[in-house]
Amino acid sequence: MKQFFAILMLTFMALLTKAQTVQRERKVVQVMTPQTFYLNGRARGTLGGKSSTVFNITLPKNTVEWYYSFTTTKGEKPKVNIGLLSQLTRLYDPTGVTAVATNAIFTPSGAGVCDIYLMDKENCSKFMNTIDQLRGTYVHNSDGSRENYRDGTVYIKDVLEGSWCLGFRNPSATEGTSITFEVVAIVEENKVIEKTNNETKAETFAKLARTSYEKDEYDKSLELYSKAVELNPNLGNAYNDMGLIYLIKKDHISAIDRFAMAIMLFKKSDNPKYWFDEAINNLNALIARHGQLEGANDILEMLRSEAQR
């Protein structure tokens, strides 16, 4: 025990001189606002109408991935709301730990069809050349392109810097189509976080408490977590783990109190989805290990319900 507290004090002394930390954070950035345009069928295009077009895409610095969503309607129709920016802002985990599945992004159902090609500037010019287009001499990125699609969301991981273009073509011979699309990137940046000494010490207590929890040293873990929230009462994960310990100890009332505090703090955090997912996973692991503890399922439903709000 003396050795444990000696290590703890040395850790604190080191942290006192390093209250400023740098954290890598990802954010959602609009690359192109929703665009709606009309393309004629190819037969009409040969008579002076437009059956293809291109849009230039300049990726932000430090892009780690990006998405575009699109949908189609037959004929000349008003703009359709895709809402890619708002959806990704809600779904994306700023830490980058939890990936976004493209099928979780809602795209309005399309009624027409279109071809979309991701290309560099040189091939973009060839794409717009009627002769080159007929001969297919332009080159495109296959992962970032789609042919004969009505709607969808495309996730791009291998083209991350510079200027590109999206080439749109109406593959129908006679039927015109309206296309709406939107482009959003995920950018990773260094974020400097200023922390007080108490906040830094609280995080250390919380890490030690979690280690004790994983070793089934519940009394020791509870004591360390209590010190952590005394120093920094905004640690939602600490209250959540204290709730888990009280469930194990069959103290249902204390468990609910700690989970209620955790939920309140999760909802006030910069990334509620991440913390709620962690809390739900931890409680599921507890139930799998210890069985149906009193109140565990009720708290699990409460976490799931609050996560959806």
The portion of residues assigned to helices is 40-55%
Shape: elongated
Total strands: the figure is 8
Count of spatially separate domains: 2
Q: Give the ordered list of helices and strands.
A: HEHEEHEHHEEEEHHHHHH
CATH topology description of the largest domain = Jelly Rolls
* Rg computed from alpha carbons, rounded to a whole number of angstroms: 26 Å
**Helix/strand structural class:** alpha+beta
Quote the distance from N terminus to C terminus: 44 Å
Features:
four-stranded antiparallel beta sheet; 2 domains; Serine Threonine Protein Phosphatase 5, Tetratricopeptide repeat; 309 residues; TPR-like_helical_dom_sf; 11 helices; Jelly Rolls
What is the topological layout?
Elements: H1 2-16, E1 20-39, H2 42-45, E2 52-58, E3 63-74, H3 84-91, E4 114-119, H4 121-128, H5 130-135, E5 141-149, E6 151-156, E7 163-169, E8 177-194, H6 197-214, H7 218-231, H8 236-248, H9 252-268, H10 272-290, H11 296-307
Antiparallel strand pairs: 1-8, 2-7, 3-6, 3-8, 4-5, 4-7
Brief sketch in words of this structure:
With 309 residues, the protein is of the alpha+beta class.
